[in-house]
Design goal:
heterodimer, A: 506 residues, mainly alpha, two-stranded antiparallel sheet, 2 strands, 1% strand, globular, B: 145 residues, 0% strand, flat
Chain lengths: 506, 145
Amino acid sequence: VIDLHALSSAFSILSSSGLAWMLVVPGVALGMIGGALPGVNAALILAMVLPLTLWMPFLPALVFLTAIHTGSLFGVALPAVLMNVPGSAAAVATAFDGYPMSRRGEHNRALGLALSASALGHLGAYLLLFFWISPISHAVLKLGPAEMLLVMLWGLTLIAALRGSHMSRTLLAGAVGILIGTIGLSPGGVMRGTFGNAALLDGVPVVSALIGLFAVGELFNMAGAAYLVEASGLRRVRIGEIFRGMLEALRYPIVILRGLVIGSTIGGLPGVGASVCNLISYVETKRTDKDPESFGTGNPKGVVAAEAGNASSEGGSMATMLALGIPGGASSAVMLAAFALHNITGGPQFIAQQKDVVYAVILTNFVNGAVLLALGLLLTGLIANVVRIPIRVLIPAILALATFGSYSIDGSMLGPFTMAAFGILGWFMRRHDYSIPACAIGLILGRQIEAQLLNYYQISAGGLGYLLGRPIALVFLVLLIASLVYRPVLRLVRPPRPIVPAPVSP
Amino acid sequence: LALIAAFAIFVVWYLRACVVAAPTTENLLLILPVAGAAIVLIAIVAAGIVRESAQSVTATAKPWTRRTASVIVAFALYVIALPFAGFDVATFVFVAALLPALGERRPAVVGGLALAIAIGLTAGALATLSYPLPTLFVGRLWHLL
């Protein structure tokens, strides 16, 4: 199961890459701090630091980004437990029982439970990836251009199908993203949509566009958000009590295991991020518990389930990204942009030819989990104060930082202009409920989709006979069609529910 | 409908640009079907918006606030001003203008933060970037030091 040659090569890469190790602690700490800021999600933090990774070799860059992601998935739990304001959608379910525990004066216990569950979920998901990555790498090599094309399109349609509302808007966001992604010099050497500007020959600067879509657009959104009240009445954090909470989480192995299975399987599906896994793990634990009524009133199992679910989704989305080169959601879309920054294309060839790098990333993520436990215990008290930073200070500071970051990519004003344009586009899209991840994934994959389609066209001479002779491609085609039609069919089969007026809260 | 109109204009313009650039199968293999699908989706979304407004269903858009508008306008002006005013001055003015708009009323905090962010980021960029950074003052001071 494990490719020992690649594994030993991974150890030697890591032993000679001091920078990768040096970036683990700051990465996890930065993720925790960023995640603790209400409204700041993992994708925003990752987009902000993306220009920094340009100055690093590929492995340390990827290690830094995954460390930030790991830290942020626990960081979002802090305001959820302490203030009932989830740091991002990934901690919505954490607040269900975390905040009631906090109100009972058990906030340290809740933080300890969340920290343990988060670290164990993370470690478990990467342990699964460690054992599965070699078989996966062999399996994905069987995928040709037809399969890859259909997988990419299926990924985009799945985001739309699983989103719950406005499927056509999500598909449209993906289609617009694909079209924008093909601006520049085509594979056939044709200049398209560049206005004759040589700076656009390589296409729209993807990193600046992602900073705009995920960070700038979100900051515009935060400026008008009423929920971002100044933190008040923060409770005192005690390390001893957090530690006892951490140990208590070990009393719920089944809950952690369920979260791990949900996170690493469902989390691997395109479009299903940590937020969905957080909720599903919580709901499943509540449903199967002997005392479901106690959930929502401060049941420790609720906190453990929610955190194990969101933390383990990272391993699942990494598997999809590494094996297929398809980002599962917003955070992995930004990580895939880091691949592009280093002129590396994720997917079957990468995972097969650079398995040692993949093992090295997995190994450092075991360290990330351990560092999360230590930093979570030591720094939670300090980071809880970060929540107090007023949003009015954060918005201009992060916007200015993003501008410097987008300029630093290639020292051209095209970066800040692109970032600003995509920031405004992202804000408009959020307002009208268009999917930002779908647009970003279309933008990142646009050129690859075109290359795979051209490849398929050349191999098959434009006929369908080639496709019909490839059973895996047919399976993906069925999945693609199913993800497109299942919601409209469901709507036809099920009668519409009567509209009931929402109860007015006092 | 403004966003959907913008999408429609972009899709039609881009499709036309691609056809004009090279009307070959290889060039339009992806663009044509994706643009076609986008136009169909635009029609579906637009029809949905019209139907919702006809039935007086609550609009899906979140409320537009003056604060958001001021942030967007200030940020757009900031980015446009960068090549002329330099990163240092433009950043100082941007932060100093935005902080009061977002609710910070203490002049010392506004001035101090704007100065700290502008000088900190510009000096950091000058120290790390291998590209020239347009500045008015900090760059000269940096080179003098």
